[in-house]
User: Fold Phosphate transport system permease protein from Amycolatopsis marina.
Amino acid sequence: MPPSTERKPVRRRTRQRPGDRIFAGASTGAGILILVVLAGVAAFLLVEAWPALVASDEQIPGDGGLVVFVWPLLFGTLISATFALVVAAPLAVAIALFITHYAPRRVAQTLGYLIDLLAAVPSIIYGLWGFTVLAPATVGPTGWLSENLGFIPLFQGPPSATGRTMLVAVIVLAVMILPIITAVVREAFRQTPRLHEEASLALGATRWEMIRMAVLPFGRSSIVGASMLGLGRALGETMAVAIVLSVSGGVSFNLIGSSNPSTIAANIALDFPESTGIEVNALIASGLVLFAITLLVNMAARAVINRRRNFSGAN
Assistant:
């Protein structure tokens, strides 16, 4: 047979424009810079916390060792942030659904602006609101909870006479993280493929059935990511918790009593100006623990989101 005269197509390398190369380099540099800053923060915390990590138990504040010093603070941080997330996440999803699928356009636009405006309020304002308004208003309801639901450890009592309880701190944190979760979930619900919604309605589904079968599954990863983002904000909140919470130390699940554990961030803000020597290192060690917890939360959120990244409106 005669040899083939067909020529193989020549691949031409696409020539990059200078603007593309500059933008690609700037983006890569920004990503590397974030990693460098993160590694620098971790290294700083580890170096400054090292004297407390190797110190004897008698040198650490409280004379119980570093674990005894950090554990109540870690417990208070986790319990306040977790309960705040439990309160805020369902409410944020409900608000996002109302804005995107139920409310008229003008109402939805106004409500969206108001929800986003909550994120611009300084945390110290939330703390003052919780201290002056919310805490006195919860004295009566916490007494009722103690009398009628005292068999539950969360409402065991006796209730605080001032209202500066972990319950108030949880409510304040929930209000603070509400706009963050709502904004992310709202945008995810708006990106739900229109064909999925119309197909569900065409098959006879009600609006709620359409939301349950099309909207919520599509936005599931965004709900998880937004919740973890709000949890990270709640874990690191400082001034609002420091103003609201009446701290007495210890570990307790009681949300309405006067014996409340502090949080790591609030404890650092309150004790750091008056601390010296090994006390400063112990506070930085607690900050290292908070840094690790926040990093683990973000990594878990990223893992959940990556499991759903291949899901799109076409499959």
Remarks:
- DSSP finds twelve helices and no strands in the chain.
